Amino acid sequence: MKVAFIINSTRKLSKFATKVIALVDDSTELQGESYYTQSTKHAIEIANQIAFDTDLIVAVGGDGTCHEVINGIGLNQLSKIKLAVIPIGSGNDFSGQLFIKSPEEFLSKILNNSFQLVDIGIVKTESKKTLFLNVADIGFGAKVVELLNRQRNRGLGGKASYAIAILRTFFLHKKAYIELTGDDFEFKGKFLMVAFCNGSTFGHGLVINPDAKINNNKLNITVIGNVSVFAYLLNLNRLKKGVRINHPQVHYFETINTNIKINGEKQWMEADGELLGANVNAISIQPNAIELLN
């Protein structure tokens, strides 16, 4: 089996990652090769180039690296390749939902072909499709990412930058009116944020949809409607605990496909922590899209 490690070179390799790479290199049954990113979006290019001649791609990085890797593989090639994740990035919400505890277990699962079919989300605009592994959201959360990117470009990084971006969003974000149409539901109204969930957790540990699972063949949606920032803050502890928010303006839906129409203030969309823009018109789930080591 050919194993390719796509490594986020802006982060120091963890002991876990270093050990896994060494174990793969020492294995007589595996052929390993490592690729280091040189810039933003480089993982997309690497994955696209090696996807047709690799059995397993290991994304070594955070949620952003995983996002780039699956988009580099591409929707048509996902079923022909396997994926694994080793977290070393700043945002590891997706990998936090996986359950491999040691490098030795990681290797054993590869050798024993212990892969699980998982779903992939698809964000559609007029011009392209973007894949996501974990959570895509529109509104408040995406505005945080937009401000965070600006701050990073100015040299302000780390957890402090994330906290500052959230604080700024409280004052700068303006709600808009959304029309969501799913397979068997419809929602219309003002909203603070809508999260489209393949995984359950985003935003450094906030369980935005406790029902979401990466292998349930559904797109789980959390609508936080016309609530105040203060009401959102009051419920942060529930999100951290993975408990549903009991509020008349918070709604939970399940679907395969959903269409989106927004009126009013411009609303950003992000997926897996990567900013996608503001012209999204549909989001769907592709069930059993790729085999994931888990």
TrEMBL record:
Q: Which UniProt keywords apply?
A: ATP-binding, Kinase, Lipid biosynthesis, Lipid metabolism, Magnesium, Metal-binding, Nucleotide-binding, Phospholipid biosynthesis, Phospholipid metabolism, Transferase
In Gene Ontology terms, what is one molecular function of this protein? kinase activity
| One Pfam entry name | DAGK_cat
Gene3D superfamilies noted in UniProt: 2.60.200.40, Probable inorganic polyphosphate/atp-NAD kinase, domain 1
Q: What is the scientific name of the source organism? A: Putridiphycobacter roseus
InterPro entries xrefs: ATP-NAD_kinase_N, Diacylglycerol/lipid_kinase, Diacylglycerol_kinase_cat_dom, Lipid_Phosphate_FormReg, NAD/diacylglycerol_kinase_sf, YegS/DAGK_C
Please provide one cellular component term from the Gene Ontology annotations of this protein: plasma membrane
GO BP annotation list: phospholipid biosynthetic process
Superkingdom of origin organism = Bacteria
* The UniProt record lists the keyword Transferase: yes
DAGKc domain residues: 1-127
This chain's protein is named DAGKc domain-containing protein
Q: Which cofactor does it need?
A: Mg(2+)
